[in-house]
Amino acid sequence: MLDSAVETQRILVVDDNTFTLRIVQHALEQAGYLVTTAVSGVDALKLINRHGVPHLAIVDLHMPIMGGFEFCRTVREFTTMPIIMLTAVSTTDTVVTGIEEYAEDYMIKPFNPSELVVRVNRVLRRMGDYSYTLESSTRVDSRLMINFPNREAIVNGEPVPLTPTEAKLLYILVRNAGRTVTTDFLLNHIWPLQDAQEDRLHVHIHRLRRKIEERAEDPTYIVAERGTGYKFDLHDDTELSPSDSDQDQ
């Protein structure tokens, strides 16, 4: 169940080299992290669908079926999960593309496990103090449930599709439930490569409210904090727990 208690931070490592997976997993577990591994982007997405979004992912570039950049593009459609690329590809264009478009950091193999741990620590500190991660399907209350990997809200039992921007916006707000998220933080994390203005954010907030609120003109989930930002409000019946289907797995 998701509550305000501090949990061990979860890291997903995606690499088709099992030796690399063992080294990275050992180093991170020694540092106190809970580590899950996958040998391809497809397997990593299955883990996210089943167990929810981790605090951070470490991703190789060249993998079978689904490569690192394709995996990053896919997860960026529903989350702002931080990513560190860990790969043998060192060409300048690839490194620049990785850092500018997909990842918070980029490490080249062969690598020092201790340095990787330091970089993981730094990225997680920079991304903010999140008290918990989100399950793949998160029940907010008796009326609203959200499936982030499927970019879908279930309102009164009816599925409501979310755009990638709406899913990422909702992900940030729900992950910080009960706390105000500043406008600058939202702009920087939803449109990191663009000079986005507040008006653009307001439009997406309005559209999201129309999809999940009982009355968009009188919102009870996404509440504006005047001059500061927005907060996903916690009600008396708010559960923020895995859906029944997740608990049965």
Give a quick rundown of the structure.
This protein is an alpha/beta fold and 249 residues long. 39% of the residues lie in helices and 20% in strands. The chain has 9 helices and 13 strands.
Strand and helix layout:
Layout: E1 10-14, H1 18-30, E2 34-38, H2 41-51, E3 56-59, H3 68-75, E4 83-87, H4 92-102, E5 105-108, H5 113-127, E6 137-139, E7 144-147, E8 152-155, E9 158-161, H6 164-175, E10 180-182, H7 183-190, H8 198-212, E11 222-225, E12 229-232, E13 241-242, H9 244-247
Parallel strand pairs: 1-2, 1-3, 3-4, 4-5
Antiparallel strand pairs: 6-7, 6-13, 7-8, 8-9, 10-12, 11-12
Structural features, described:
It contains nine helices and 13 strands. With 249 residues, it is α/β, with parallel strands linked by helices. It has two domains: 10-127, Rossmann fold (3-Layer(aba) Sandwich); 137-247, Arc Repressor Mutant, subunit A (Orthogonal Bundle). It has a five-stranded parallel sheet with strand order 2-1-3-4-5, with helices on both faces. Strands 9-8-7-6-13 form a five-stranded antiparallel sheet. A three-stranded antiparallel sheet has the order 10-12-11. The longest helix has 15 residues, at 113-127. The chain starts with 9 loop residues before the first strand and ends with a helix. Mean pLDDT is 86; it is low at 1-6 and 243-249.
